[in-house]
Design goal:
Blueprint (H helix, E strand, L loop, with lengths): L9 E6 L8 H13 L4 E4 L4 H4 L9 H12 L3 E5 L7 H6 L26 H18 L5 E5 L11 H15 L2 H7 L27 H26 L8 E5 L8 H4 L5 E5 L9 H19 L4 E4 L18 H11 L4 E4 L26 H15 L12 E4 L2 H8 L11 H14 L4 E4 L12 E4 L9 H10 L3 E5 L21 H4 L2 E7 L6 E5 L4 E12 L4 E6 L8 E8 L2 E6 L1 E3 L1 H13 L15 E6 L2 E6 L5 E11 L5 E8 L4 E6 L1
Parallel strand pairs: 1-2, 1-8, 2-3, 3-4, 4-5, 5-6, 6-7, 9-10, 9-11, 11-12, 12-18
Antiparallel strand pairs: 13-15, 14-15, 14-16, 15-19, 16-17, 17-18, 20-21, 21-24, 22-23, 22-24
Bound molecules: beta-D-galactopyranose (GAL).
The site of beta-D-galactopyranose has 9 residues, from loops.
Length: 669
């Protein structure tokens, strides 16, 4: 792995001069405008394949050379993309195998992007050749700082080549069909396979109801993507292994296990498009904070914000403008969570194509005196004022477990709330309960290398699957003095999605001091309560698990139904630590109450030690506290001590006002 350590915060974004080659006067203006906006980095060539290789094997870098030279002379660093996100028409025409087949096994036509067969040897070879040519041409250029591999990898291909590769993947994993049949539980519905050739990719037209197979399919697709990225990485680093590589990840993404993909790159970056102004900016900020934390945690390293919009997007049903202050607030929120950049899509709006009305730093009017341009300029200026934050790191002593494979396993599960177990939402609500308290949080998964020893709190909601012996890690964590919070429907299946035999949560009943016997699903109109020992009554919806043989201390009991009086919230001492168990789904407010009690037993420090109004969030990066106002109204902040606002240099003491969408970066004076 190459260490990626930018010298300054990167500010800039996707630059598509290839759309403007017939407009030299526009290209001329771009550099001056970039300098005015304090742009110091651009992503170049993301979708340039058709111009770089107009004919098979004939590469033309002349147009890009001119751009690269101009940018370099202007001190603007280049994040050079490999163009594998969209292929030229000639390639699709000559080699149809590069086109994906959909899950009905129908071959797609040329068009769109991000829709290639990642298994196709022709596609891999053509991309490798293109990337190698790029590396030979630019690999030693001082202006090139980082490689941007492809763009937003995603989606599955179901072509015959992929089907064959899937079978090879399974042979490698299971060795024999007997082993596969046993792990896929094919005795159910007469699914037994007697020849490898009988196995096809899962499809809504065929096999879509074997959960173990679905898991293997997603693992296979992840591996195809990981090896594709690794192939591209090796190609671009073949000339100069010192330029790091990244891929741009997305939020809410389900197709691949991102923790596995990140192993192929040097630095994690992601594209963030929150729906600010859609009704509840605190909720939007909470979910964005979760993704920032996830991206930072993947490599336990600072990450890059690769894309964000300077104003509106164009692909949502309602493309609202960013309100005044929001571009600064959202940009610096990423910095608070460990970003080394604020990069945007896109520098300039094109005249045509699908994204001509997507927000950009420069609009069709070409002006720099617009509201959006000024917002961008202000963020660039601010980033220049906070260089000391670049080397400051977010140190979290709490983590939330979020595991892609567990999500896959839960996604379509035909159990209590069929297809609606809400895993990601539950993880995010737990994360939010800590984020609102100003506690820094990492996000970890169940890979073998996951190490919990640095944490004092581990929150592991809805951990339906235990893989790689994760239950042992949780047990040891508590034994050694950690605080664990688990929930209902945990420790039910193993890594192949076969249920454990015996009491649940598998391997942790002694740690929790109970066993989970049944889980009740409530109809949407129904509710129950969890009555806490101090009399507080929490509302419970959707899921209620019924524990038995409880030796743990009972903190809350069900209020209604045939399980009224049975424990719903418990805590149990085990070794030197404490294991909390929450049996039911609570509202966010009630979850906050529970989290308050759980955190009260730990040594976790909040970023700000006086109470903050709702919607004002404190996040810590090194010695710096970012106070962010997502509440939609001006807020008064109480300070205990004297702080220095490192953006404007002023002293803050006793109280201060934070405007709507305001943000302050403070250091104890
Ligand atoms: C991203 C993509 C960009 C652009 C942007 C628009 O997902 O990587 O190329 O399409 O969305 O918001």
């Amino acid at each position: 792995m190459v260490k990626y350590e930018p010298e300054v915060f990167l500010h800039g974004g996707d630059y598509n001069p290839d759309q403007w080659l017939d407009y030299p006067e526009i290209l001329e203006k771009d550099i001056a405008l970039m300098q005015q906006a304090h742009v110091n980095a651009v992503s170049l060539g993301i979708f340039s394949w058709a111009l770089l290789e107009k004919e098979e094997g004939v590469y033309d870098f002349s147009w890009m050379d001119r751009i690269v030279e101009r940018l370099t002379e202007a001190g603007i660093g280049i994040i050079l993309a490999t163009p594998s996100g969209a292929r030229p028409a000639w390639l699709a025409q000559k080699y149809p195998e590069v086109l994906r087949c959909n899950e009905r096994f129908v071959r797609q036509h040329f068009g769109r992007r991000h829709n290639h067969c990642l298994t196709s040897p022709v596609y891999r070879e053509k991309v490798r050749a293109m990337d190698t040519a790029l590396a030979q041409h630019y690999g030693r250029h001082t202006g090139v700082k980082l490689w941007h591999i492809g763009n937003e990898f995603g989606g599955y291909c179901y072509c015959p080549l992929c089907a064959d590769a899937f079978r090879e993947f399974l042979k490698e994993k299971y060795g024999t069909l007997d082993a596969l049949n046993a792990r896929w539980w094919t005795g159910f519905w007469s699914q037994r396979y007697t020849a490898w050739a009988q196995i096809e990719p899962p499809s809504s037209e065929g096999q879509d109801s074997n959960p173990s197979m679905m898991l293997d399919w997603r693992r296979f697709e992840t591996e195809q993507c990981r090896s594709f990225i690794a192939m591209e990485r090796d190609a671009v680093q073949s000339v100069n292994p010192d330029i790091p590589v990244t891929i741009n990840l997305m939020e809410g993404f389900l197709d691949y296990d991102y923790f596995a993909l990140q192993e192929a790159v040097d630095v994690v970056s992601w594209d963030s498009y929150p729906e600010w102004g859609s009704g509840d900016d605190v909720a939007t900020a909470a979910s964005t904070a979760f993704y920032h934390d996830l991206m930072r945690s993947m490599k336990s390293q600072p990450f890059l914000l690769m894309e964000s919009t300077p104003s509106q997007v164009n692909w949502k049903p309602h493309n609202k403008l960013k309100r005044p202050g929001m571009h600064m607030l959202a940009s610096l929120q990423s910095v608070a969570h460990g970003s080394q950049s604020v990069l945007m899509f896109q520098w300039r709006k094109g005249r045509g194509g699908a994204e001509a009305f997507h927000g950009a730093v420069v609009s069709h009017d070409g002006r720099s005196d617009t509201r959006v341009f000024r917002d961008v300029e202000a963020v660039g200026e601010t980033l220049q004022k906070i260089p000391e934050i670049l080397s400051a790191t977010v140190k979290a002593r709490a983590c939330v477990i979020y595991d892609y494979e567990n999500r896959w396993a839960l996604e379509g599960v035909e159990a209590a709330q069929k297809g609606h177990m809400q895993y990601l939402e539950t993880v995010m609500s737990m994360h939010r309960a800590l984020w609102e308290k100003g506690v820094s949080v990492d996000v970890r998964d169940m890979r073998e290398e996951t190490d919990l020893s640095d944490y004092s709190l581990v929150v592991a909601p809805l951990l339906f699957m235990f893989r790689n012996g994760f239950e042992d890690k949780l047990r040891v964590f508590v034994e050694k003095g950690g605080t664990l919070l688990m929930t209902y429907f945990s420790g039910i299946v193993d890594g192949d999605r076969l249920t454990f035999l015996g009491d649940a949560p598998h391997g942790l009943t002694e740690v929790l001091g109970l066993r989970a016997e049944e889980i009740d699903a409530l109809y949407p109109q129904d509710q129950n309560t969890c009555v806490l020992s101090d009399g507080t009554c929490c509302t419970v919806r959707e899921l209620c698990e019924i524990p038995r043989d409880v030796t743990a201390q009972v903190i809350g009991r069900y209020g209604n139904d045939f399980y009224a009086g049975l424990p719903c919230l418990t805590v149990h001492s085990y070794g030197k630590g404490r294991a909390w168990y929450l049996g039911a789904k609570l509202s966010q407010t009630d979850l906050m109450r529970v989290m308050e009690r759980v955190c009260g037993e730990t040594d976790l420090a909040a970023a700000w030690n006086t109470p903050l109004p709702y919607g004002v969030i404190a996040s810590r990066r090194g010695d710096y506290v970012f106070l962010q106002n997502f509440s939609g109204r001006e807020q008064k902040i109480e300070c205990s001590g004297t702080f220095r606002d490192i953006v404007n240099g002023q002293c803050v003491t006793d109280t201060c006002m934070l405007p709507v969408n305001g943000i302050m970066i403070l250091k104890k004076a």
